[in-house]
Amino acid sequence: MGAARPLLGWGLLAVAVVLAIAALRPAHPARAQQRDPDAPTAAELTEGAELYAVFCASCHGSDGLGGVVEGTGRRAPALAERPDEVTVPYVDLVVRVGRMPPAGDPFDNRARNRDVIDERERELLVAYLTREFDLEGEIPNPPEGEARRGLEVYDTNCAQCHGSTGAGGVAGRGAYTPQINQYPPVTIAEAIRVGPFQMPQFDRTTISDQEVGDIAAFLDHVQEESGTPLFRLTELNPVYASAYVFVLALVILASVVWIAGRPAWFPDPQPPQAEEDAS
Ligand code: HEC
Ligand code: HEC
Questions:
Q1: Choice from 92, 105, 156, 162 to test ligand 2 binding pocket (greatest atom count within 8 A of CB)
Q2: Mean pLDDT, residues 247-273
Q3: Angle CA(53)–CA(122)–CA(40) in degrees, nearest 5?
Q4: I want to staple 241 with a disulfide (CB 3.0 to 4.6 A). Which of 59, 155, 236, 255 is the partner?
């Protein structure tokens, strides 16, 4: 028994030393100074602020509290202080699809601005908005899906507004819905979870994350399948379709006039003079 005492003493001392070292060391000394690699730098935030000032502030206000849109007398909504409605994926989505900044009348949801803000600028802008307006939520990352399963979920939840192949333009009551079969999975996922503007929002109990991936896979599949849209009238937005029919009618009319104006139905059976000379 007497021999065990000093051993116990040394053991306690060792434990005490280890505890003391642990207590004196700052937690994660290396990481204490390292910043989160995903956090925007000060320079990036400044760039984001400039983008907001140039592209958004005229309508949404530099404080993000909204304001009257010049020439319309109607208000642009606040982006700040509406944590339940305006989220990170919402601002990302509207810029991604070119709905904001508006191409024309901001209340006309047909307008899309495609090449105003590039991918890097969008990221800087979203990072700034997230920080400045305390936006919540994350940009979704849907799992890889299966087109066959996606068809069913799509048919049940989306087809009535966006058309059976995502070509858009078929919602009732004169409302316009955009074409959506050209978008990557992230855009599809954002729209489903956000429910932008007049579109309903779908939560996980209605459409699971896997089903979001399936819908994206289905839309990608129809996009690949559909060849040239020119001769697939039923797939066209009705506005374009009627314009197409109008142009087609003009072409037919013009040909009829041209044919009627010709002296004969068939060209002269006699070969042209030049050919005879050559032989
Ligand atoms: C010309 C004015 C104008 C500019 C510029 C503009 N917006 Fe908008 N924005 C509007 C209007 C108006 C609406 C509401 C449209 C509607 O309800 O149909 C809107 C709606 C939004 C919404 C949806 C808010 C909600 O309550 O549903 C977001 C998000 C948004 N804008 C973000 C932006 C961002 C980000 C920019 C800059 C890249 C921007 N907007 C630039 C006028 C503008
Ligand atoms: C009640 C009709 C309705 C239903 C149902 C609906 N959407 Fe939408 N969706 C809209 C409208 C309207 C817009 C355009 C909103 C705006 O920009 O003003 C839209 C926008 C979108 C966008 C953004 C495209 C863009 O260019 O702005 C995507 C992506 C989208 N919807 C996907 C879906 C998917 C996937 C489903 C099914 C899970 C679905 N929607 C169900 C009406 C609907």
A1: 162
A2: 70
A3: 85
A4: 236
Under the banding of pLDDT at 50, 70 and 90, the label for residue 173 is low
> Is the pTM value of this prediction over 0.70?
yes
Residues with Cβ < 8 Å from 95, sequence gap 6 or more? 117, 122, 125, 126
Distance 194 CA to ligand 2 centre (A): 10
Mutate to test the pocket of ligand 1, among 93, 94, 107 (most ligand atoms within 8 A of CB): 94
Between CA 270 and CA 247 the distance in angstroms is 36
Query: d(Cα 102, Cα 100) in Å, to the nearest integer?
Result: 5
HSE-CB for 17 with a 13 A CA cutoff: 6
Tokens of 61: 């206000």
